[in-house]
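Review form for a predicted model. The reviewer records the input and the model, then writes brief findings.
Reviewer: anonymous (R2)
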Amino acid sequence: MDEVIWGRPERGTRGPKPAHSRDDVAAAGIRVADADGLDAVTMRRVAAELGTGTSSLYRYVRRKQDLLDLMADAVLGEDDPPLRTGEWRADLAALAHQMRDRMLRHPWLATMSALRPSLGPNGLRWLEFTLAAVDGRGLTPDDMIIATGTVTTFVLGSVVTELAERRTASSLAQWRAAQGNYGDSIISGGQYPVLTRIMIEARLPHLDNPAEKGFAVGLGRILDGLAPRLELQ
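Model under review:
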């Protein structure tokens, strides 16, 4: 099994000094992913972004997964973890909002975060902050993982949904307009009373910022659910 890139020195002891650093490689990959999505990130494309040959890129990373790991960790380094307040709810809320903001800046990160966490230096700083937010409250290590994972899973799911809605915003608006008469028939048909009530009374879908408002309210509900366990101490 290949060793993770963080377990290998950035440069060997022999040979000339490399023209680029791992930070350079990560930055090039991020530029490609931000512009054209994660599928566009290939060794050839990133090498071209750096102005070097594909074979030269393998001096810095042995495989594409190394490149993706560098990219994810570099993005995590764009912001420092918030200052710890010692109040678990405030700390987890700050973590969630920064996580959401980061993924909205770099939409491809949501896909990567669903696959595996970053264990690079920046990823470890964030992981330490996350676990420390619920430390000392009587939870077992497994319960700490579950509690923090519940929050981060909520953030990830919310962001993935929000990004999908952004990509289809214009077509979704057209679809809603086209379904106007059909929606009226659902309401007048009387077969779906709960759905009808929601269609008539719900305000969230009609707000200017439904995703942001829904995220804030949903996060509050998640934290309310964690409170009985975390406030025993």
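Findings: Residues 172 and 178 are 10 Å apart (CA to CA).
Further findings: Residues 141-167 form the longest helix (27 residues).
Recommendation: see findings above.
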